[in-house]
């Protein structure tokens, strides 16, 4: 028995575009463990939904293999695979009751009515909707409809649940509540979820691991913290959250994983080399998150703000504040360092508005720990 619920081995999917072949999935390989919440994340057209459809059996690969619990899925149609799919629009039958919607798949398989009703009631209890079985979908809120769609998928006890961007709620607060509920449900039922989304916050909030996709390839696979803190490529760093990019020239790469980079103003800084960095010299990009950048009015006070860290482990640039924006939880500062470097720094508003600390035109020291910056291929 395989230790993985899903394995994709060198998967390729080509479509005929009329003017030639369009490669939607390009030699993708990944292993997804039993009980894992795994997110496929990327922009529209990156191949994430096609990958999900290949697992579901709605599409067949042009090359490569799909295995579910160690069994090759070649030639096995979607309705015979041990998976179920929740779609973005929920696809509930409006003329059927909630109970009938949930029972539908069981009845199509020949499950007796009494057993189907029993399992439907259990599924509704699982998603905390006991008592709504006789209602029609239109009588439920969007969040409740989502849970009905989940109950309908879970009632067949699939090995893997596939979710195609199901959190379509227009209101931010409702969407966040649904994220919390979905993650709690996955934890309770204990089955593998594979979740497709273009929303990086959704992926980071819910997933155990994330695969960031672009142009049909999986650029990086890892835990949310790894994807955010140690991006492998410029695309990953840019797609996940806000990032500063500073162009420079790689002048030295050490065996300890550190790299020295000369910036455009001839300043030399030290940063962590990405594991995917291929350059040994030449043009590179340094990525640093805005919240990792501290601001101070003097070098001595900057040192005090990074307690216990040797000065050699800190990068410090002279900068000028050219804009500040109060955004509730934080104040966002735009800085100019020298003639060519522009940075964004964010400071949390702990006791009221931080924006009064650094006004537009202020000269400041922008500083960060060397380990907080990553050197990437340009």
Brief characterization of the structure:
With 378 residues, the chain is of the alpha+beta class. It has helices at residues 48-56, 98-108, 113-126, 142-154, 172-189, 200-206, 224-229, 234-239, 299-305; strands at 4-16, 21-33, 37-41, 63-68, 71-72, 83-86, 160-164, 192-197, 209-214, 217-222, 244-253, 258-263, 268-273, 282-288, 294-296, 314-326, 330-337, 341-348, 363-369, 373-377. It folds into 2 domains: 4-232, Rossmann fold (3-Layer(aba) Sandwich), CATH 3.40.50; 242-377, OB fold (Dihydrolipoamide Acetyltransferase, E2P) (Beta Barrel), CATH 2.40.50.100.
Structural summary, described in words:
- With 378 residues, the chain is of the alpha+beta class.
- The protein has 2 domains: 4-232, P-loop containing nucleotide triphosphate hydrolases (Rossmann fold), CATH 3.40.50; 242-377, RNA polymerase II/Efflux pump adaptor protein, barrel-sandwich hybrid domain (OB fold (Dihydrolipoamide Acetyltransferase, E2P), Beta Barrel).
- It has 9 helices and 20 strands.
- It has a 6-stranded mixed sheet with strand order 6-7-8-3-9-10, with helices on both faces.
- A hairpin with a 2-residue loop joins strand 9 (209-214) and strand 10.
- Helix 2 (98-108) packs parallel to helix 4 (142-154).
- It starts with a strand and ends with a strand.
- The model has no long low-confidence stretch (mean pLDDT 89).
